[in-house]
């Protein structure tokens, strides 16, 4: 296939069109964490792989679990199966995932963080990049392939605290006690993210999403310094290598700061959590596409809560550039039939 015909196939992908600012009816749809424990076939492959990281670093099995939700539901996008914490793992801060707890790392100090070498990530993450190539080769041509990484602030919260936290107090304390030292950690993660995302584009990703799941823990100044500015540098750095690279930002829980985020970073689309009022979301559509924002618990509950929730989001946002998604990841207790119903409702099909 020559470059031009490949370009034509790509631009037909519906999520790519939405990222380019087009209004589509019905809107394209995918779900964060769409490959995961709510699917029996995921649990089977996961058991075969061994640990969660063994699955992430096995290109064939990572490809298999990426495709599982596409086979079942025909989502408009597949998202690479991996985790945001493979980056610290690659940088030399080993990560393990403990059942019922989540990720565990040996907390890193800011002196050690300043010595991290971001140039090792693409080599260390070769199996993940191999998975990107395998997935692209196996996907239907109309399906968009999304790569991703964690935003520097969110990845730093796990590196500094050594595990998840609900308010990020340990990392906020460190960031405000030694802001210059914390900047150096963020700088290393900006560089690692640029290299890693560029490599994902080179292996066939159509677009990438940057997850800033804990951005809502920052105050206005902190948000500007450790969320907005790093993201602006990532967008510019990736586009310097991949001109026109399409990028989705997902700063969760930041409310009114979303406006500043989209203006300053130049993202093609912004992900919205379910707390974002839809009238406010419509205003953002003047600057970029929006993605979201059904409460995942409406999907768990099903019935009228699901129907009215989908209708409300599609009615409000469907008249501008829009990608239907949840406001955060799908949870393991989600009934599979509710996901089928959600997709049908978004597509205006009767169930
Ligand atoms: C903060 C964060 C992490 N990982 C991620 C984020 C940002 C998005 C968000 O806020 O949810 C991102 C992520 N994690 C995973 C993906 C795969 C792609 C997808 O389907 O969206 C993506 C995009 C797989 C995963 N990542 C994880 C699982 C579950 C592990 C398992 O199968 O045992 C999956 C499918 C583990 C994980 N990984 C992480 C935590 C806190 C946990 C434990 C919590 C949990 O178990 O759900 C870190």
UniProtKB/TrEMBL annotation:
Q: What is its EC number?
A: 4.1.1.37
Q: List the SUPFAM superfamilies.
A: UROD/MetE-like
Q: Which UniProt keywords apply?
A: Cytoplasm, Decarboxylase, Lyase, Porphyrin biosynthesis
- Please list the reactions this protein catalyses: uroporphyrinogen III + 4 H(+) = coproporphyrinogen III + 4 CO2
Where it sits in the cell: the answer is: Cytoplasm
Q: Which Gene3D superfamilies match?
A: 3.20.20.210
Please give one Pfam family short name.
Answer: URO-D
The site (Transition state stabilizer) lies at: 83
Q: What is its main location?
A: cytoplasm
Q: Name one GO molecular function term.
A: uroporphyrinogen decarboxylase activity
Cross-referenced HAMAP family: URO_D
Protein role:
Catalyzes the decarboxylation of four acetate groups of uroporphyrinogen-III to yield coproporphyrinogen-III.
Q: Where is the Uroporphyrinogen decarboxylase (URO-D) domain?
A: 28-37, 146-162
Q: Which organism is it from?
A: Rhodobium orientis
What is the name of the protein in this document? Uroporphyrinogen decarboxylase
Q: How does it assemble?
A: Homodimer.
Q: Does the keyword Iron-sulfur apply?
A: no
Cellular component (GO) terms are: cytosol
Q: Which family does it belong to?
A: Belongs to the uroporphyrinogen decarboxylase family.
In this chain, substrate is annotated as bound at 33-37, 83, 158, 213, 328
Q: Which InterPro entries match?
A: UROD/MetE-like_sf (IPR038071), Uroporphyrinogen_deCO2ase_HemE (IPR006361), Uroporphyrinogen_deCOase (IPR000257)
- Tell me yes or no: is Lyase among this UniProt entry's keywords: yes
Q: Which GO terms describe its biological process?
A: protoporphyrinogen IX biosynthetic process from glutamate
- Pathway recorded for this protein: Porphyrin-containing compound metabolism; protoporphyrin-IX biosynthesis; coproporphyrinogen-III from 5-aminolevulinate: step 4/4
């Amino acid at each position: 296939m020559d470059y031009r015909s490949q370009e034509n196939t790509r631009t037909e992908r519906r999520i790519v069109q939405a990222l380019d600012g087009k209004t589509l009816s019905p809107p394209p749809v995918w779900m964060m964490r769409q490959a995961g424990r709510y699917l029996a076939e995921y649990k089977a492959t996961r058991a075969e792989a061994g640990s969660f990281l063994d699955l992430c670093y096995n290109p064939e099995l990572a490809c298999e679990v990426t495709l599982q939700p596409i086979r079942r539901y025909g989502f408009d996008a597949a998202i690479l199966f991996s985790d945001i914490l493979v980056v610290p793992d690659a940088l030399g801060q080993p990560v393990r995932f403990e059942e019922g707890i989540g990720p565990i790392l040996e907390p890193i100090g800011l002196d050690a963080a300043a010595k991290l070498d971001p140039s090792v990530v693409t080599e260390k993450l070769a199996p993940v990049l191999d998975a990107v190539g395998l997935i692209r080769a196996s996907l239907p041509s109309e399906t968009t392939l999304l790569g991703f990484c964690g935003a520097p602030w969110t990845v730093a919260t796990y590196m500094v605290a050594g595990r998840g936290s609900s308010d990020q107090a340990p990392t906020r304390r460190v960031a405000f006690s030694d802001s210059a030292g914390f900047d150096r950690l963020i700088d290393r993660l900006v560089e690692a993210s640029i290299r890693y995302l560029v490599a994902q584009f080179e292996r066939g990703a159509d677009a990438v999403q940057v997850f800033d799941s804990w951005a809502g823990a920052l105050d206005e100044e902190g948000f500007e310094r450790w969320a907005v500015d790093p993201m602006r540098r990532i967008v510019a750095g990736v586009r310097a290598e991949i001109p026109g690279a399409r990028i989705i930002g997902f700063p969760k829980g930041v409310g009114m700061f979303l406006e500043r985020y989209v203006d300053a970073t130049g993202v093609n689309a912004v992900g919205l959590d379910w707390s974002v009022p839809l009238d406010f979301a419509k205003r953002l559509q003047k600057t970029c596409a929006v993605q979201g924002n059904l409460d995942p618990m409406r999907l768990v509950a099903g019935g009228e809560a699901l129907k009215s929730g989908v209708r409300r989001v599609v009615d409000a946002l469907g008249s501008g550039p829009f990608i239907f998604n949840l406001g955060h990841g799908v949870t393991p207790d989600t009934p599979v039939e509710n996901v089928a119903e959600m997709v049908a409702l978004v597509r205006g099909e009767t169930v």
